[in-house]
Design goal:
Structural class of chain A: mainly alpha
Largest interface: A-B, 19 and 16 residues
Strand content of chain B: under 5%
Helix content of chain B: 40-55%
Largest sheet of chain B: none
Helix content of chain A: over 70%
Order of helices and strands of chain B: HHHH
Low-confidence stretches of chain A: none
Number of strands of chain A: 0
Number of strands of chain B: 0
Order of helices and strands of chain A: HHHHHHHHHHHHHHHHHHHHH
Oligomer: heterodimer
Structural class of chain B: mainly alpha
Number of helices of chain B: 4
Strand content of chain A: under 5%
Distance between the termini of chain A: 17 Å
Largest sheet of chain A: none
Shape of chain B: globular
CATH topology of chain B: Non-ribosomal Peptide Synthetase Peptidyl Carrier Protein, Chain A
Number of domains of chain A: 2
Low-confidence stretches of chain B: none
Mean pLDDT of chain A: 88
Number of helices of chain A: 21
Shape of chain A: globular
Radius of gyration of chain B: 12 Å
CATH architecture of chain B: Orthogonal Bundle
Radius of gyration of chain A: 24 Å
């Protein structure tokens, strides 16, 4: 059962109906049963691992709290984190490390006999492991009390709307919300349904329509440079539509249950710098990496060069978190380089903007920065999307070749679409951009829409639902569901 | 050395500012020196100068010269009676 299915909507409707029909004291049992059932429907075998990780984190949190000295607390916390990372490492990274060591051994003529292991990665393990690590660190730092109610703690670990692909929540924010008695509110129901519908819209009309086109180029051995350029730009649009749709559905479902999840995206493709991009893209991962990797490693650093190293390490962790492959490591490294290069050259770039008088036209200057940031992000995604390091470098070379960018070649590459597909995609892409435009001018498009006449509002809602039903493409999994 | 002088020196050292610069109006993000990376260096410098630990949660509160004084005062640094 995936988010984009009638089964999920029916399942969720039953949960909502039951949730508001039973007394508050029983709701945690319902949410827990729903969460484990949902996870079991995706991957029944690994429910046991989820249960074990939950029990381990629960007990470790209490043990940390019971230690008398800061040093003892730290030891228990580190031991707990090591166990959690070992489990993550075993399932997600064993074959990556094994294959890498074997490749080195072959190159160096060493004798290395550890065979490839058939290990299936449990869905959502990266997400719930990061939540568990933040929980243990926060208890160690005294920011959070260890949760004693095993039921509520288990929901924090497995809350079905955000279990599969986040947002990565902190216990301090999420746990108290489960304990508050929620009543069915019209505004929550209305807002939640709109967010879910909007998620379906982006997923089925943008992401899943682009996925086969992008795949046809990236899986082709003889793609042209212009096709790589176009497919990479389309992949950026696909990835945003795909992942932000997942967050929309998660936030919408949780809101109907009275739970507020953290926003994960703020129009990342309108970022004016790479630093700004990471404040807008997968925000809950960025803030997690900032709070639990970047800031602790930056402590005591008094030179920019030392902070630069920490930035690169943080982005490497981000890359490895995304996937057990060297392409993701390189992707992380590229973003680390972007961030460091951007900081190191900010004075020079300021002077260039002044010399070219670009800074005298703030609006144009802003759009130039948005365009450059978007292209830099697209280039990094060549590595994110390519199937191997060798292919990534070939594709990157094609992406950087000026010939690949000639307008005639790009127009030719549009033949990747059928005419009908191109028209459908263009129409819905414009609608998404219109939504973003209104959001940039106002704080929320939904609030803006709620102030329009009833006819306009319902026309938009009907357009969203009918478009999904008629033109929605399905059958593709979520990209971030695989992490 | 008075705490306010140590505080001022920390800014000059961490953000590589001119000694004669007016610091009282400085705010995070409003000058090229005090950006997010400069902020981390400033935090490290202040932690060492005043032997305090500034937690990630309160780092975002510290967004101007004056709020830094308020934050350190909360952490036990006395700026008033010295």
């Amino acid at each position: 059962m995936t988010f984009i299915s009638i089964e999920f909507l029916l399942f969720f409707a039953v949960i909502v109906f039951t949730y508001y029909s039973i007394p508050h004291r029983w709701r945690w049992i319902l949410l827990l049963a729903a969460s484990y059932s949902f996870y079991a429907s995706l991957n029944s075998y690994f429910v046991l691992l989820l249960l074990a990780s939950t029990a381990f984190s629960y007990v470790t949190g209490i043990i940390i709290e019971k230690q008398e000295t800061k040093q003892q607390k730290k030891r228990v916390m580190l031991a707990g984190i090591c166990v959690l990372l070992f489990i993550l490492g075993w399932f997600k990274y064993f074959n990556f490390v094994n294959d890498s060591v074997r490749a080195i051994a072959i190159y160096m003529n060493w004798n290395y006999g550890v065979p490839y292991q058939e290990i299936v990665m449990p869905i959502a393990i990266s997400f719930y492991t990061f939540q568990a690590v933040s929980y243990l660190v926060d208890i160690y730092k005294g920011k959070l009390k260890a949760e004693r109610h095993y039921g509520y703690f288990s929901i924090y670990f497995a809350f079905f709307p955000q279990l599969v692909a986040g947002p990565i929540e902190r216990a301090k924010k999420l746990l108290p919300q489960f304990k508050v008695e929620q009543t069915l509110k019209y505004e929550n129901l209305s807002y939640g349904m709109k967010r879910i519908a909007w998620g379906f819209f982006k997923k089925t009309l943008i992401a899943d329509r682009l996925a086969p086109i992008v795949a046809s180029v990236y899986n082709s051995p003889d793609a042209t440079g212009s096709e790589i350029v176009l497919a990479t730009i389309l992949f950026s649009i696909q990835l945003y539509a795909d992942f932000s749709a997942l967050s929309d559905i998660a936030i919408g479902c949780a809101r109907i249950l009275g739970i507020k999840l953290t926003e994960n995206f703020k129009q990342p493709h309108f970022a004016v710098s790479i630093g700004d991009f990471w404040n807008r893209w997968h925000i809950t991962l960025s803030t997690w990496l900032r709070d639990y990797i970047f800031i602790p490693l930056s402590k005591g650093k008094k030179k920019r060069s030392e902070i630069y190293l920490v930035i690169v390490i943080t982005f490497l962790v981000s890359g490895i978190w995304h996937g057990a492959a060297w392409t993701f490591v390189l992707w992380g490294l590229i973003h680390g380089f972007y961030r460091v290069f951007g900081d190191h050259t900010k004075h020079v770039r300021g002077k260039m903007a002044s010399f070219t008088r670009l800074d005298q036209s703030p609006s144009l200057h802003k759009w130039v920065k948005i365009a450059i940031t978007f292209l830099l992000v697209c280039f990094s995604r060549v590595f994110f999307r390519s199937n191997s390091v060798a292919e990534a470098f070939e594709n990157a070379q094609l992406f950087l070749t000026p010939y690949s960018w000639r307008p005639a070649g790009l127009i030719d590459a549009l033949q990747l679409f059928s005419l009908l597909d191109l028209m459908i995609f263009s129409f819905f892409f414009v609608i998404v951009q219109l939504f973003h435009y209104i959001e940039r001018k106002n704080t929320s498009t939904w609030d803006w829409l709620s102030q329009r006449p009833a006819f306009t509002r319902y026309a938009v809602y009907v357009l969203i639902v009918v478009s999904v039903l008629i033109f929605g493409a399905t059958g593709q999994g979520f990209v971030y569901g695989g992490f | 050395m008075k705490n306010i002088e140590k505080y001022r020196n920390a800014f000059i050292e961490a953000l590589e500012l001119d000694e004669n610069e007016t610091l009282e109006e400085l705010a995070l993000g409003e000058s090229s020196e005090w950006d997010s990376l400069g902020h981390m260096i400033l935090i490290s410098t202040l932690e060492e100068a005043f032997d305090v630990s500034i937690d990630a949660d309160v780092m975002t509160e510290f967004d101007s010269y004056q709020t830094g004084i308020d934050l350190l005062t909360r952490l036990g640094v006395d700026f008033a009676n010295e």
